[in-house]
Amino acid sequence: MSRFLGEIRQLGYVVNDIEAAMKYWSETLGVGPWFYNPKVPIENYRYAGERYQPHNSVALANSGFVQVELIQVRNDVPSMYRDFLRAGRTGLQHVAYWTTDYDADLQRLLAQGFQPQMSGEVGKNGRFIYFDTEYHPGTVIELSEVMGPKGRMFDLIRAASQDWDGQNPVRPFPDLNTL
């Protein structure tokens, strides 16, 4: 449990080959099923205060209470993921805390001196922000809003992982507009 925001809910891994990573996690580690989106619909994306159009592929699966996120960068837009790769790293890049009170939690972190570096939105009430906290690899902190369709999708992914029998290890992301 973190004294800042409760439980870590997601571990985010930046990978060079998301298909190979999903295969490894499902076949070797038994984690799945993976919900895969080859181009995540990120709106209002900002990195270091500037607007960009990122193209990232993402796969999500749960191992118990914790969600694992695999991220592959598909274009050269500035991002903390790209910075991580350019530093010669792959693997755990961030830990995420989920919130249903995004504005209050964001203000609390800003008051504690956390510095925003990257932000955007995935669906209605699906804001996210990454802070400049990487003092060693894998320590970036993400605050992720889970009120709207994104939260319902995360619930669906966790439910699918319970008693997963290894069949259909890769599935498409649900349509956020229908959740």
From TrEMBL:
Domain spans labelled VOC: 7-146
Alphabetized UniProt keyword annotations: Metal-binding
Family matches, as Pfam families: Glyoxalase_4
InterPro entries: Glyas_Bleomycin-R_OHBP_Dase, MMCE/EMCE_epimerase, VOC_core
UniProt cross-references to PROSITE patterns, sorted A to Z: VOC (PS51819)
Protein name per UniProt: VOC family protein
